[in-house]
Amino acid sequence: MPAHIQTAYTTFEERLTNEMMTDARYSYRVAYVEQVVNSRGKADQVVEFLRPGTEKGDQVRLALKEVEKPKLKPGQIVGLMRAEGHPRFNLLHHTRLCKAADAKAPGKAFGTTLSDGAWYWYPSWVDQVRAHVQANAGLYGPQ
Q1: Which residues contact 50 (CB under 8 A, 6 or more apart)?
Q2: Same structural domain for residues 28 and 83?
Q3: Are residues 136 and 78 in the same domain?
Q4: Maximum CA pair distance of the chain?
Q5: Model confidence over 60-101: pLDDT tens digits?
Q6: CA-to-CA distance for 139 and 75, rounded, in angstroms?
Q7: Per-residue pLDDT tens over the stretch 18-46
Q8: Domain count, the chain
């Protein structure tokens, strides 16, 4: 499974309680395994994958496009806050805010660990930081 799909799937499932996971309304699972049959009548169910660049695929009016969320490191977030008029906001403030909010908790989906082992923050976390610094402008604003 591609990494971005696995990440989305994991992020979604981490938000579910055990009760939700075992609920029959959620627990229905589907795995698409390509198997060749001689005719559609022999298949239990038919799912047709239309690839772009094929005759049928080019006729599809609905297309799904992979979109990866932007990811930022803490220093970039600090730079954004400073550029927005909060020059006293620094990495220590960011770290304290992160810990106070338990922002790396799996259910919060504020960021992810990539293959390089580093944590990267999503824009939703930047919004949280922005709200914090705006609410505390006296602490982080110009002197």
Answers
A1: 56, 57, 60
A2: no
A3: yes
A4: 76
A5: 666 556 678 899 999 999 999 999 999 999 999 999 999 999
A6: 19
A7: 778 777 676 655 555 666 666 666 666 66
A8: 2
